[in-house]
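Researcher: Please translate sequence to structure tokens.
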Amino acid sequence: MISVVVPVHNEERSVALLYDELRSALEPLEMQWETIFVDDGSTDGTFAALTRLHSSTDNVRVVRLRRNFGKAAALRAGFDQARGETVVTIDGDLQDDPAEIPRLLAKLEEGFDLVSGWKTRRRDPLTRRVLSRIFNRVTGAFSGVHLHDMNCGLKAYRAEVVHGLRLYGELHRFIPVLAHYRGFRIAELPVNHRPREHGRSRYGVERYLRGFLDLLTVSFIGRYRHRPLHLFGGLGLILGAFGTAILVYLTVLKILGNAIGHRPLLLLGVLLVVIGMQFFSLGLISEMITSHHEERAGERDRAELLVDEVLS
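Model: Translation complete:
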């Protein structure tokens, strides 16, 4: 079964049209499929339109959130309801082309776990295109996952990729990064992108700023979640080494008969040593907490999460 997850917010005029396009794209595949619309606190007639669609079809399910929690929460709610071995996400504004889904699924069958769309010819305002390009390059530099279009709404996943993802804030932008850190194989495929005909975009500069902060969160979780001492301890050692070098230099000056009590460098050296010790202590405490958590989770369960294939 293929589960198509569609987060929507005030897309009353688009949901029925999108379902018709999904049916045209997926029925020729001769596979079971379902569509899960997640109404993220719409204030127009979106839920009524989804209710009518649910009543007239047998493969549409509707999830209604209590209020507008954001796209990450909507995707997580949709993933929790998905029953298919393959999960596809697509935005509800009709800019993503459902006709591209069979190509994504074919790419998935080549041995990848996640295939992300790449809007090579993006039909968005210039400011949004520029911000998106900067965002993708910064994300690639921080995470090591280099995709042209990290935030494309059109993606195909194997079910094990999305189940267990904890999405909140703006983390939906970094699903490929989270999947990469968990050892899944990622690919990118050029897809068609269409101009927006209904509704209006809700993306602004502030979302990219919040997304950058979430990028720091994702990078920390992915690289240092199981070894926090490598981050905090490393910073502590570097700062402590600088502070110690300054104090050794001042000690030599003192031995040679120079006064050092009035020098700001003395205060800087002491401060760097103290901060370095604090960072190193924080790393040790974090390491102890992580170790305790791993012991409670169980070594066997943790090993199963890392295994890709077993031949026996």
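Researcher: Any highlights?
Model: The beta strands are 2-8, 33-39, 60-64, 86-89, 114-119, 155-158, 186-191.
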